[in-house]
Amino acid sequence: MGGHAMTKETVFIPRYGWRVDVFVNFDCEKTDLVLDALEQIGCDKHHLLDAEYSMMNCAKDTGLTYSSPEYRSSVAVVYKTTSFKEFINTLSHEVAHICAHITKAFVIKLTEEEFCYMLGDLMAEMSDSILEVAREF
Predict the structure, then answer these.
(1) How many domains would you assign to the chain?
(2) Residues 50, 56, 60: CA angle, nearest 5 degrees
């Protein structure tokens, strides 16, 4: 996926009034775009510095997620990956973090069916991005 452009997708979860910005195929030269998105949802300086350090390493097969219950928003970043398998691994990992943050904010048990629907709904909303990445491999 080395030469493919970074994309940003915004997903809204009406049931929780929650917005999710997902950056896919992260380009470390565009760190400022992600930092701006994090600042817009109230990310504190400590987490901003951690995110900036992580992104400036230009690593592959990893990601990051930050959520703000106050803003009912999350920002997730899926870095460039070495294979479609790694992309799915990283994306599902970051989506699980988002779902965990939402369940914590709304006091939903991870063992409840509602968590599973939330996870499925988020993945379904990102299906176009997933298909686009699949075509790149």
Answers:
(1) 1
(2) 100
Prediction pTM value: 0.91
User: Within a domain: residue 116?
Assistant: yes
C-alpha span between 100 and 94 (Å, rounded): 10
Q: Would you say 62 and 53 are in contact if contact means Cβ atoms under 8 Å apart? A: no
How many residues would you count in the chain? Answer: 137
Sheet holding 73-79, edge to edge: 7-13, 18-26, 73-79, 63-68
* Residue keyed to tokens 């930050």: 66
Please check whether residue 81 is in contact with residue 60, taking contact to mean a CB–CB distance below 8 angstroms: yes
Q: Please tell me the distance from the alpha carbon of residue 104 to that of residue 123, in angstroms, as a whole number.
A: 19
Domain, as residue range, for 71: 7-136
**Each residue of 78-118: pLDDT tens digit?**
999 999 999 999 999 999 999 999 999 999 988 889 999 99
Contact 23, 33 (CB under 8 A): yes
